[in-house]
Amino acid sequence: TRLCHVLRRLGQAGGLNTVAAAATVNTALTQRATGGVVYAWPRLFRRSLTSQANELRVGSLVMDKEGELLEVVKWTHTHGQARGVGNVQVEYKNLRTGGRTGERFSPSDKVERAVLDAEAYQYLYSTGGGAVAVLMHPTTFEQREVPVASFGPHAAHFLIEGCVVQMLFHNGEEISAALPDEVEVCVRDAAPAMKGESVSSQHKPAVLETGLGCKVPGFVEAGDLVVVNTKTGEFVRRVR
């Protein structure tokens, strides 16, 4: 998701066309496994990906024989006696139905890993009383409505107009939505610095433009643009 932060900065500097170009480069250059998610090359170069069962981990995404997308929610490798290779016991969650199934493998058995498409979308605004985020694809200008809750419990405080978020798709179906690791937010109100302490060492309460409260260093004032971590809600640095 750090890429999303980079894309936002690029978009601010060069507009939507720059964001679109950066998103295209991202899709073309990042075929990698991270937490069990494999980001795809463009469809022209896509190929099937397989792994051994003993390489699976909690969070890995695989395909079953019917083409259903499954997430590994439990993984256990039981070692056999003496020189036995043991077995791998896996519990899956079907991401479409929510149902759970189990399967047992030999460690060297092959499983098909899911190939996902990562797409950058720009956040426009929220509707439905703030419950639905309206996103726009920077290349096609297609608009998509996504539940704000998909981005996490505190997403409303970090979905800033113009922010670029990442969407993951499988065969055109939305799988997940993610905020960037960091966002730039304006400080709406900040308490005055306390006397008798260095402004660089003390922290004081502040309220961001989205209504989120957080602690900031003493030198931060109302109107400053700051970077905040979207996972912790903590101050990272002042931009200006």
UniProtKB/TrEMBL annotation:
InterPro entries reported in the protein's UniProt record: Elong-fact-P_C, NA-bd_OB-fold, Rib_uL2_dom2, Transl_elong_fac_P/YeiP, Transl_elong_KOW-like, Transl_elong_P/YeiP_cen, Translation_prot_SH3-like_sf
Pfam families for this protein: EFP (PF01132), EFP_N (PF08207), Elong-fact-P_C (PF09285)
Domain Elongation factor P C-terminal: residue ranges: 183-238
Gene Ontology biological-process annotations: peptide biosynthetic process
Xref: SMART domains: EFP, Elong-fact-P_C
A single GO cellular-component term on record: cytosol
Domain Translation elongation factor P/YeiP central positions: 118-175
Molecular function terms, GO-annotated: translation elongation factor activity
Family note: Belongs to the elongation factor P family.
Protein name: Elongation factor P C-terminal domain-containing protein
